[in-house]
Amino acid sequence: MWSFIDLPTYKLCLANCESMRISKIGCEFANASSIRTHPYAQLMQSGRVSSIMSTGKQRISKKASSGSSGSSSGSRRCAAPTSDPDDPVLKDLRRLFGHSGFRSVEQEDAVRAVLSGRTDVFVSMPTGAGKSLVYQLPGASAASGLVTVVVSPLLALVQDQLEGLKSAGIRAEALNSRMGVKDRKRVLADLSCKRPDTRFLYVTPEQCATGTFRGVLERLVKYGKLAYFVVDEAHCVSQWGHDFRPDYLKLGKLRSLTGDCTWVALTATASDAVTKDILKQLSLKKVKRVKVPCFRKNLFYDVRFRDCIQDEFEDLKDYVVGCLGDGWEEGRTRESGCGIIYCRTRDGTEELAAQLRRRGVPCEAYHAGLRGNDRPRVQKEWMDGVVPIITATVSFGMGVDKASVR
Prior knowledge:
Mean pLDDT: 78
Strand content: 15-25%
CATH architecture of the largest domain: 3-Layer(aba) Sandwich
Number of strands: 16
Number of helices: 11
CATH class of the largest domain: Alpha Beta
Radius of gyration: 22 Å
Helix content: 25-40%
CATH topology of the largest domain: Rossmann fold
Largest sheet: 7 strands, mixed
CATH superfamily of the largest domain: P-loop containing nucleotide triphosphate hydrolases
């Protein structure tokens, strides 16, 4: 069972794996003078991790880095993002999203590459680096009537993106199998207009394989209304594609339908082999690559044997409450601390949620087997802070923007 706790400068991951529990804990705060650690954690030093077992002096070390290193930004990597207040791109960034500048030089490079329209763009940036802005700023600042199509594998992620764009006053719609007939007709009617109000259209890879979507795409291209074509979580094309999202493998066939439209592929991590496969499967052309190492110096591993824990559910409850902090039950809002516990099976999510509820921690299970509106309800209650903890299968949380996850 995996628990994932994430802040911009604090990350924690907890797992039950056979006879041991593994935690990956972030202990570094950018704006704090002190370092918080879980009682079980040992501070990572110099990019290596160490953990002392409670059963003795056995020590485990593991490299904390993962993925491939390097950046296409070259010598600009140590430079600062552009700060010229008269820069038209920065003006759009402030006007549309309220940001005074880019998060990193790599994020800026990627955005400007998309805006140039001269190449397709491949972006590999770790979680929290601002990948969504790479296509959202170009798409939102495009000429009126142009639509950016975004392929995303998870409805939870799509809903999160829709809400974020709506809060910025940008119209975004989705086409998926769970939509009602009335909503589907409304979306399709707008996309058929001479000048659609929709700026972003989110679709699942399965929807891309339908005749309805193909017709929408062909009309957008025919009348010059397609701004960009974006493939989010692009590692699904290679690393997960064959068993997680088979329809991702068919997206490359749409490349020939989109003419000279710029394609953007984004992922949080991809090895050189996976990157090469993504470019091949999607038929990307003259690709601009922006790649940031996914090494996180504030992460390390702590290992405890399950046999050393008298009551594993009580122990987990104490751990969760400790992470949520004092007063976590009072006056909860969207900014209140919350967490995700990842489980390998649906039954595992249900069992663990029930165990935590019995111990006084409000918790809901989230998985693909939930009925009707239960999945969006659970997600909304968690996003709004009503439910502090979710036990979920591994896909939940992918790309969901919620800074209060502990």
